[in-house]
Amino acid sequence: MRGRVRTVANVTVKGPILKRLPRKLDVLEGENAVLLVETQEAGVEGRWSRDGEDLPATCQSSSGHMHALVLPGVTREDAGEVTFSLGNSRTTTLLRVKCVKHSPPGPPVLAEMFKGHKNTVLLTWKPPEPAPETPFIYRLERQEVGSDDWIQCFSIEKAGAVEVPGDCVPSEGDYRFRVCTVSEHGRSPHVVFHGSAHLVPTARLVAGLEDVQVYDGEDAVFSLDLSTIIQGTWFLNGEELKSHEPEGQVEPGALRYRIEQKGLQHRLLLRAVKHQHSGALVGFSCPGVQDSAALTIQESPVHILSPEDKVSLTFTTSERVVLTCELSRVDFPARWYKDGQEVEESESLVVKMDGRKHRLILPAAEVQDSGEFECRTEGVSAFFSVTVRDPPVHILDPQEHVFVHAITSECVMLTCEVDREDAPVHWYKDGQEVEESDFVVLEKEGSHHRLVLPAAQPPDGGEFQCVAGDERAYFTVTITDVSSWIVYPSGKVYVAAVRLERVVLTCELCRPWAEVRWTKDGEEVVESPALLLQKEDTVRRLVLPAVQLEDSGEYLCVIDDESASFTVTVTESYQSQDSSNNNPELCILLKKPKTRRLWSRFPPWRRTAGTE
Fold first, then answer.
1. Percent of the chain scored above 70 by pLDDT?
2. If 0-12 CB within 10 Å is exposed, 13-18 middle and 19+ buried, where does residue 588 land?
3. Percentage of the residues of the chain whose pLDDT score is greater than 90
4. DSSP characters for 567-606?
């Protein structure tokens, strides 16, 4: 060709490997593959690998300059790139394994089915023609009519006659059969036997019936497991139960039942059995299996229908409390407990039972009836938390803040009226609860509560509170220390009178309730028509309606350690003017202009709460 030049030359590359592997090596499957390599030096160790993975040393050998790899009986898995490496030099060949094509064996011939025996089928056939050169077996398969799946029954080595029993099928039905020849070179086409055979498997008990114990009103379930899927018949007390209905009855209005079959398991469900069904005999029958069991009805355990959870109740005193516990069984005994102790019936606590219901009644609850109540029966309990409280308390009087003013040694009484006689009342002074003592008296009269200070002292003053429930009454008490009871007269008084005149001695006190004593010449006077003792507000009077000469003397108005002194002189006639001038304090009648004072109302012996 014009303009083109091709040069051909032999190129020899010197290296440690003298004789290299061929580029390709074809070996028939099953033969031995032998690869040889010659190296320049003797006794060196090379490395054989296939597709990058080292080959086992058992396949390798070396002798002087020669290195051999022997792969006995190669298969398709042995194909690949085989490489011999020595240092940086290597040689590679592509090992290809060629398969020898074998024909599969031929199918059996003259296949026939015979159904002369009960629940068995006889299958016969002849060996294939020509007979296979390699060993072979026959594989028998079955197919249930209506299904697309073929299932292997078993394999045999010799042709002839094979009897297939009903035990070889999983469930009752019509079955077809086919057979084929199988060798190491493949499988022949299937040969289908003409017709079908009805086979019934022979069942065995895997898990039999067991006696059942249930409570009255519950469902009873009987079940058994068989070795194969097969229909069976249930019996109750010898009477066959119909299985073509989803649910049936032994007789109208009698026991209802349900028959179920799931795979290998058969179940009989008896609905809501009653006590009269106890002792019934349940049976099951199928080809090869008969089993039975007994039904026992127990009294159902009692359980609490209501309440389901703990109940918390709150009442006020005198209310009617009713705790109700409903059981699942009629007239079943139960016991009531309060704070862990069994209760005892009384007029204030009544226990009743009415069918399923048990009641604990408190006709008129009191605060002490509060607690944890329990209705207990056969290991189950209902719990009630009851709280009884007094009704709200209201203070009727006083409605406003009360201010009390008293003097030392006076009796001070604070009164608080509530709307309930049984309501608890507490007294406080300056924030601290008051405790009864010789100096403080706490009184209660019906709905009236009193705090009494019999002889008040200045430290007894302060802020008092009467607390009833959430309400309070407030009192401010002030005790004043006075130095004198007698306001008038402040000094000694001289009275001059003429016989048969009216003489009045007057003494004014600082408090209207104070009591005084009148004395004459050191002896206490006795009231009589000739000597009158009068009391008006804070004024105390001694009156001599018709004074006599013997009425002259020293008169004292005495209270505690104080006294007012009066000197009375009675004459037959008035003295001369000169004589009168010599004693300016003499007078016939002593009176002080009357003054008006406002005092709070109190008993004659004590000072009560009020304002001055």
1. 88
2. middle
3. 29
4. EEEEESSPPPHHHHHH-TT--S---------------TT-
**Structural domains of the chain in order of their starting residue, each with its CATH number:** 17-98 (2.60.40.10), 109-199 (2.60.40.10), 205-243+255-298 (2.60.40.10), 304-381 (2.60.40.10), 395-480 (2.60.40.10), 486-571 (2.60.40.10)
What the block records as the tokens of 533 is 């003792």
User: What are the tokens at 587?
Assistant: 């007078």
Q: Which residue has the tokens 């083109």?
A: 4
Q: Which residue has the tokens 């003792």?
A: 533
Number of Cβ atoms within 10 Å of the Cβ of 316:
13
Pair 219, 256: CB distance under 8 Å? no
Quickly count: other Cβ atoms within 10 Å of residue 452's Cβ.
Answer: 19
pLDDT tens-digit series, residues 20-79:
888 888 888 778 888 888 888 887 888 888 888 888 888 888 888 888 888 888 887 888
Q: What is the pLDDT of residues 319-337, one digit of tens each?
A: 999 999 998 888 888 999 9
Q: How many other C-beta atoms lie within 10 A of the C-beta of residue 403?
A: 15
Kindly state the average pLDDT of the residues 560-566: 89
Strands (DSSP E) found in 301-431 = 304-306, 311-316, 321-327, 335-338, 341-342, 350-354, 357-362, 371-377, 380-389, 395-397, 402-407, 412-418, 426-429
Distances (CA, A) of 208 to 170, 227, 241, 293, 532: 19, 11, 19, 9, 124
How many residues in total does the chain contain? Answer: 612
Sheet holding 289-298, edge to edge: 212-215, 289-298, 281-286, 233-236, 239-240
Residue 64 phi, psi dihedral angles, 5° rounding: 65, -120
- The DSSP 8-state label assigned to residue 549 in this structure reads G
Closest of 389, 390, 372 to residue 381, by C-alpha: 372
Residue 482: strand, helix, or coil: coil
202: amino acid identity, one letter: T
Residues whose CB is less than 8 angstroms from the CB of residue 232 and which lie 6 or more positions away in sequence, other chains included: 203, 226, 261, 266, 284, 285, 286, 289
Task: Detail the DSSP E strand segments found in 169-219.
Answer: 173-183, 186-187, 191-192, 197-199, 205-207, 212-215
Q: Which residues pair with 47 in a beta bridge?
A: 85
Q: What are phi and psi of 105, to 5 degrees?
A: -70, 160
Which ranges constitute the DSSP H helices of 333-391? none
